[in-house]
Each structure stands twice: as C-alpha cells, then as structure tokens.
Amino acid sequence: MVNWLFWVKLIYGIILFAFPIFLYWFLVPVQYLVIIYWVSFGPIAFVSVMIICEIIAAVSPCCGKVNISSKLKMTTDIAIIIPAYFPNEYKILSDILNNYKVILESSNKINLFVLLVHNGKLDVIEDQNTIINELSNIHENIYIIENENSKSKAENINFGMDYLNGLEMPIDIVSIFDADHKPNFHLFELVASFFESNDDIDIIQGRCAVSIDSSFLSKMIAIEFSEMYSLYHNGGSKLRTFGLFGGSNGHWKFNVLNQVRFDHTMMTEDIDATMRSLAQGFKIAYYNEIISYELAPPNLKALYSQRLRWAQGWAEVTWKDTGLLLKSKHLTFWQKMCCFFILPFREIYYYVTMHIAYVGIIYLIKMGFNFWPTYVITAITSFLLFVMVAKSVFVYFTSKHCTIPNAGYFILYMLISLPYEIFKIYIVYFAHLQFIFKERTWRTTPRD
C-alpha cells in the first residue's frame, strides 16, 4: 500500500506542478489570465492582511491583556502527564526526567507529580528492567507506568487520566508534555497563577521553543516555531478570542480534560480535542511566557514525516469537526467564522495560492511590461514580499526565547521562506491523498 501510494503521490505532485503551466500557457486566452490572477489573489490578500493584523495584535499592550497575580493564594495540585513512545524515546528520558526533578524540588505552593505513560515495547532493548528502575528512582514523585495495549499518544494520555481518577487525591490541573520537552523551571507557578487569576479559562496553551543544536535545520525550525507561537498563536488567539491546544505544553483543568479526553483515531488528537472543547463552550487561552523547549526533527526526512502527519491530521479534523463548530451554541458568529478560516478555508487555500505564481509569470512572459496589469502584478508581488519581510522582522524582535545566536539566521530564514512554504504546500497535497486513501501509518519523530 505504501509503495503504491508513493507513486500515486509522485504522479499527483507532477500533475499539480505541470498541469497549470500547460493550462495557462496553451488553453487559457491571455485576456483571462488577469481575471484568474485576481481570483487567486483574493484569498492570498485576505491571509496577508490577517497576518498583519496578528502582528499588530501580538505587539499591542491593550489587546487581549492577561491578568496574573504575582503570588499564589492557594496551594495547587498539578499532575504532569508525559506520553512516551518506546523504544523510540527511551534514550532521552533520563535527561528529561532529571529536568523535572529540579522543578519538583524547587516548586513553591504547588504539589507536583509526574506521570510518564509509555507503551512498553521494550523487548528490543537490553536491560529493560534496569532502565525502568533507573527512571523510577529519579524522584519519588515521578511514576513510570506501562500501557501495554497503546498504539498512540491519545491512548497514553487517556490511560494516564484513568490512573489519576483511581488515586485518592485532589488534582486541580493536568499538564501535558511530549517526552522531549523541558519546561522552564518556574513554568508551573505561572500556570497555577494564570488559572487562579482567570477562573473562566479552562485550558492554557504555552509557548513551545526549539532547543537548537549545531545543525542548520534545527536553527531554521527554531525560528519557524518562534513565528508559529509568537505570531500565529499569540496574535491569532487575540484576534480569534480563543487559543489552540497544540499537543504539548498544554494545561487543562482536571475536570475539563476528564470530560473531553482524546480520540485515538485522530492523527492530530490535540487539534481535535481543541475543536471539541470549543464546541462544548470551554475557553482556551494562550500565554507567551509559559515556555518549554523541545527537540527539532533531526533531518529532512523526519521533518517531512512530522509535517505530513500534522497536515493529514488537520484535514481529518476539518472533515470531522467543522459542522460541530458551526452548529455550536457556545461560539459567537465571529468565532465560528474564525473556525471556518482555520479549517476548511485553510485546506482549500493551499490549492489557490500556487496559481497566482503560474498566472503572473506566464502573463508577464506573454505580454511583457508594457500593459497596466503588469504594474498591478508587480505591486501585488511587492505587497506579498513586504508581508514576508514584516513577519521575519517581527519574529526577530519578539524572539527572546528563540535560542538563535545572531540575526544572520533570521535573514537566511527569510530567504528560504518561499521554497519552504512551497515544500509545505506539497506536503498538504500529499496529506490529502493519504486522507482519501485512508493511509494512516504513524511515523514517530526519531529521538536519540
């Protein structure tokens, strides 16, 4: 199935690239190219304007201001669930759990305990019992439990929730982190303070930053994550009036997570849980100062697999949850329009965005620069480039938690942004094919 689908994706990609060139060069009269250009430009202009609005919202001190008390008034009980996939992630867990040990020993007015839920599969590892014992002995409040029937992150989290329900202890908040995440040392004080100061909030999404290594790829992904969280999560949540749970560094009121749970049949169970939570009337906030650091995919193949899984998951959520959101009695008209924008519009947009380049270039080749539409095309192209530059400048000046050593990498990121966006657009095309053919092989990101 996978080999057959590979060739289908290859042929599909070639057709999507070559057919528009053939269509606009040979079949469409030149006078209609300008019309097609304007039709293609409409959605792109809308997205570009939204990006500018997100930049303004992100930097505006009066837009979506968060109130947080400086001191905790009450003791808060927080359970941290870490869903781990063995044997892929067992090598990094000693370092990760020792980071939690430091947090556990320095927490003030917060009762923390860590629940690492793994799927077993340690039979291929030598001294497996020794490894589990070493991890269990790092700290008395770190528990290692096996969910031997698990095949997904969602099942591990749900299993962890079942375990917590069986304990005779009060739990206020459940924090979810992927197994490669290192939270900031004072993260949980901020989480508890946020919930204490904003009782109407049910879920908080924090900022995920990338721990860079010597590779060029990790630096580029670190900048991309800085853009993703400081702009799209931060500014976007203020515009939409709701945040998005991104799968890690997410913090839930215990009773809310108990009610929502995760659907193990979804590729992106986090986005599905987000949409179902919103439809049920739960409020999600984003806070930029709640920061954890994660590992970047080690190579392009791993990056491709990760983004393919994300893209297919978004397509699944669009298909499954759009109607639920639009019919919800708990969302305003504006929030429903925002849900439509980030789900079905988003999926269709990728097919529109490529045509503007084909039409613009072919029109300029055929007509030259002596007609008024060419000036419009030039002006529009300049506007789109301005938005791209504005994003990069914004990310540079708001990236205090992005561990990039100098501004040169931001310039490089800006230069590769266009081919990288095209790369991600084709990933979406392939993800849609996999969704149609129900190819759902789960490929984890390698961790060493």
How would you describe this structure to a colleague?
With 448 residues, the protein is an alpha/beta fold. The protein has one domain (1-66, 198-448). It contains 14 helices and eight strands. The chain has helices at 2-27, 30-59, 93-106, 128-136, 153-165, 187-197, 216-240, 254-260, 269-279, 300-326, 333-353, 355-367, 372-397, 408-436, and strands spanning 76-84, 110-118, 142-146, 173-176, 182-183, 203-211, 250-253, 284-295. Helix 3 links the parallel strand 1 (76-84) and strand 2.
List the keywords.
single chain, alpha/beta, globular
Instruction: Give the amount of beta strand, in percent.
Output: 5-15%
Measured as a percent range, the helix fraction is 55-70%
* Main pleated-sheet profile: 8 strands, mixed
Which overall shape is indicated by the principal axes computed on the Cα atoms?
globular
Gyration radius from CA atoms, angstroms? 23 Å
| Average pLDDT over all residues | 88
Strand order of the largest sheet: 3-2-1-4-7-6-8-5
Number of domains: 1
Order of helices and strands: HHEHEHEHEEHEHEHHEHHHHH
Termini separation comes to 29 Å
Which residues form runs of ≥5 with pLDDT under 50? none
Query: In total, how many beta strands?
Result: 8
- The total of helices stands at 14
By secondary-structure content and strand pairing, the structural class works out as alpha/beta
